[in-house]
Amino acid sequence: MIPLENHDMLAQRVHDEESRQSFVNDFRIHLASKVFPGNFPTYYNRVLPQFIKDKGREPETRHEVRRVMTHDPYYSFWSAMQRNSQEMIWDSVIDSVERQLPELIEKSRKAATKGSLTLDPDLETPKYHVAADIHLQPGAYHSDQIEDDVAAGAMYDWGTYIYSMGGLGTGNNALGQITHGFFKNEFPDMKPKRILDMGCTIGGSITYWAQQNPDAECHAIDVGAPVLRYGHARAEALGATVHFSQQNAEHTNFEDESFDVVMSHILLHETSRTAIQNVFNESYRLLKPGGVMMHMDLPQAHGQPPLEGFLFEWEIYNNNEHFFAQLRDMDMAELCRKAGFKDENIHLKSAGSFWMEDQTPYADDGFEFPITIGIK
């Protein structure tokens, strides 16, 4: 298991906790590299021939593949193991967090104040956020169990690291590395003075941006108080200056045309259809003329073969990623147009996972994250 970069807010593990987490990490690598690939011969050697025999044609959509593959014993076996491994992630990290929670809360209260933390106890958490525990994390990212709770953030830090099998890098900030590298390549002459990250959770991405742009004013928003408390203290522990505030990305309290860059990292697939348009509208409102909107998220279904399209949607049906289903077929360019961006300033691009080539079992697949860009 690749060591996660240590910092003052990271829950420390005793021997048995570390052993348990390493097992879950290795179990997930085994499932991804040795068991999951078996779904392809299962489909082509057994499921597809039976479908053709019954229907006289091949499946035309991922939905048709789902109706037959979910009844296959090999797929069912892999799916059950994958679901169990997701539950094991949280079971393996919760002991470390619970054991040290009072200490972590006290550290967050005493966090240095290069940046800031502003919470809004009256903020209504959107229904799409409370409808289910996203990624099966108990209590999701918004639940406070005790005063000044940071448990959700502390669990998220270790949990996402194991979820990605180390693919988020030793700093748990690979998504920020991707967008930052992408931005530097696409806009080499732009020196942003004010940057906003929407749906930041514990701020791994914006903290990286702040570290790389010490002269910029970096802001990060989320609806979850416990992840913001943890994220603020985490950024301070890593020497980054970030201003965290509890806000809904659909409607923020920032002034018009006040940011050079407005971005998000895999936020959109956690929101509703209406919310996604609102987020684009708000991004447009917040950008200065010439400013850049960048929303990086998970791949859509456009152009995916039916089998690959079906397999990619496992998280929707088994890992409480329900709202990802709608994003799969949405027209991102049209969302940009409705928000106010002109056609010539809308770009649908992608950025790859070059950063983890020697770290994960799926690194050679050339996985890329789509990035929707709008220039005001």
What do these coordinates show?
The chain is an alpha/beta fold and 376 residues long. It has 14 helices and eight strands. It has helices at residues 15-35, 39-55, 62-69, 73-109, 127-130, 151-163, 174-186, 204-212, 225-237, 273-286, 306-311, 314-318, 324-327, 332-339, and strands at 116-118, 194-198, 217-222, 242-246, 259-265, 287-296, 346-352, 368-375. An eight-stranded mixed beta sheet has the order 1-4-3-2-5-6-8-7, with helices on both faces. Helix 4 packs across helix 9 (225-237). The longest helix is centred in the N-terminal third of the chain and has 37 residues, at 73-109. The chain is globular, with a radius of gyration of 21 Å.
Distance between the termini: 43 Å
Q: Helix/strand-derived class?
A: alpha/beta
pLDDT < 50 runs, ≥5 residues: none
Strand order of the largest sheet: 1-4-3-2-5-6-8-7
Strand content: 5-15%
- Overall mean pLDDT score? 93
3D shape: globular
- For the CA atoms, what is the radius of gyration? 21 Å
Strand element count: 8
Specify the biggest β-sheet: 8 strands, mixed
Could you spell the SSE succession in H and E letters?
HHHHEHHHEHEHEEHEHHHHEE
Helix content bin: 40-55%
Figure out the total of helices: 14
